[in-house]
C-alpha cells in the first residue's frame, strides 16, 4: 500500500468512526458505547474519566488495566493519574498510553485515554481519538444539562427534608421512589466540605464552583459503587450523602471511611482536600433534621480540633457533643471566660498558662509528673501552681473546680 493509500485509509477510518459515534449519540448512546466503538475501530483500550481521573466509562481489557497499574498510572482507589499522562504518550510495558482533554466551549469536561499493549499510539490513532473526544464532549454537555436540573431538584428536596418541610409522608415517599432513593434502612448523614483555598485563589468563585462540581460528582460516583439508592446532593458549599449503616457496620463508620478514602484518592489530579462530619445513625425521616445538624457540628468541631482534611464522627466527640446541644454559642464563651478569667484572653502569656493547666489536669495535679512533662524544675512548677490557684481558686483540692476548668479549656479549643 502506498503512502497516499495508507493516508486515505486512515482518513476513511477516522470519518467512519466519527459517523458511527455521532449516530450513537443521536440514538441515545452513552459514554460506555462511545468508548467501546472507539476501542473496536482502533484496536486499542479506551478509558473516559473525569478531569481528575475518576473512571466514567471504559473499553479496557484486564491485561491493559494491569499495564496501566504497572506503569504507575492508576492509584490504589482506581483513579487514573491524569497528572502523569498527556498527549505526548507514556510508555506502558511494550506499548503506550495517551491522554486527551475532552473540551466544549472552553470548558474542561473529561479525559479520554487510549492504550495499546504492543506498539505506540500512532498519529492517526490520535486524530481518531480527537474525534471521539469531540463526540464525547457533545454527550457530556447534554448529560450535564439534564443532570443540572435533576440534581438541583433532588438537592432542594433533600434540603427540605432536613428542614422538616418536605410535606406529608405520602408526598415524601413518592418523591423518594421517583429519585430511586432508599431511606428505609438506617443511615448516617455525611457532610463534606472542601477546605478553604489558598489566598491567591480564594476569591475566584468560578474556579471554586468547578472544584465543587467535580467534588460533588466524585461523591455521586463513589456512593453508587457502595449501594443502590444513596441520596447525594450538592448544597453549593458542601456535599451531603446519606450512607447506609450496614448489618456488619451498625455505626456506619467503616462505610464512611471507605467512601472518604475513595473520594480523596491519592489527592492527585488537582483534587482538593476536604473535611467531613458524620452524624449518629438515624432510622426515620423525622430524625433527619437532627442528624444533619449533627453532621455539620461534627465537621465544624472536627476542623477546629483536628484541622483540615479530618473526618469526625458526632458520636465520638465526647464532651463536645454536649457543647453542640447549646443553642447559643456565646453562652459557652461566657462560661469559659467566667471560669478561666484572665487565662481566657488571646495572649501568649494566657496560652502558656493554659498549656500548664492542661498538663496538670492530665496528670491529676501530680506536680512532679507535670514538671517532667513540661521539662521544668519541680519548684518552678510549684510556683506556677500557686499563681494559677491565686487566679482561679483551689484547683489542687477542689475536684468540682477542676471539672469546670477542664470543660472551659475544651470550650476554648473550639473557639
Global mean pLDDT: 84
Uncertain segments of ≥5 residues (pLDDT<50)? none
Helix run count: 14
Distance between the termini: 77 Å
Strand tally, please? 10
**How are the strands of the biggest sheet laid out side by side?**
2-1-5-4-3
Radius of gyration equals: 28 Å
The biggest beta sheet is recorded as:
5 strands, antiparallel
For the record, the CATH architecture of the largest domain stands as: 2-Layer Sandwich
N-to-C SSE series?
HHEEHEEEHHEHEEHEHEHHHHHH
Overall spatial form = elongated
Write a brief structural summary.
Helices cover about 55% and strands about 15% of the residues. The protein is of the alpha+beta class and about 425 residues long.
Polypeptide structure, described:
With 415 residues, the chain is α+β, with helices and mostly antiparallel strands. It folds into 3 domains: 142 residues, GAF domain (Beta-Lactamase, 2-Layer Sandwich); 161 residues, Alpha-Beta Plaits; 85 residues, Orthogonal Bundle (Arc Repressor Mutant, subunit A), CATH 1.10.10.2840. Helix content is 53%, strand content 14%. The chain is built from 14 helices and 10 strands. The strands form 2 sheets. Strands 2-1-5-4-3 form a 5-stranded antiparallel β-sheet. A 5-stranded mixed β-sheet has the order 7-8-6-9-10. The N and C termini lie far apart (77 Å).
